[in-house]
Amino acid sequence: MAGSIIAVNETNEPMHVFVSTYSNDDGDDSWYTVGANRRESWDRDGWELVAFKNQDDSWRAGVYVPANSTVTYRGLDDITWK
């Protein structure tokens, strides 16, 4: 199942996102900062954890999604995917 995972930031602040590498050993699972109202994608072939954290890393939240998913972030208490 080749594909990607897209993270969409629908806030007016930067978000910090991490995508696991369970299905892509060559992928990078570092934390990334995605600008306000921007999107980024990661090449992934299977199920992955997509996690978010706040600026001081005192709160985290995430979802476990299959490849070819879009995860939308509207805040740590409002994360949806399709």
Notes on the structure:
The chain is mainly β and 82 residues long. The chain has no helices and eight strands. The strands form two sheets. The protein has a four-stranded mixed beta sheet, with no helix packed on it. Strands 3-2-5-6 form a four-stranded antiparallel beta sheet, with no helix packed on it. It is globular. It starts with a strand and ends with a strand. The mean pLDDT is 95.
Write the layout of secondary structure elements.
Layout (H helix, E strand, L loop, with lengths): L3 E6 L5 E5 L12 E3 L4 E5 L4 E6 L6 E6 L3 E5 L5 E3 L1
* Shape, principal axes of CA atoms: globular
Order of helices and strands: EEEEEEEE
Flag low-confidence runs. none
Radius of gyration: 12 Å
Number of helices: 0
Give the helix/strand class.
Answer: mainly beta
How would you sum up the major sheet?
A: 4 strands, mixed
DSSP helix fraction: under 10%
Please tell me the overall pLDDT.
Answer: 95
Strand order of the largest sheet: 4-1-7-8
Count of strand segments: 8
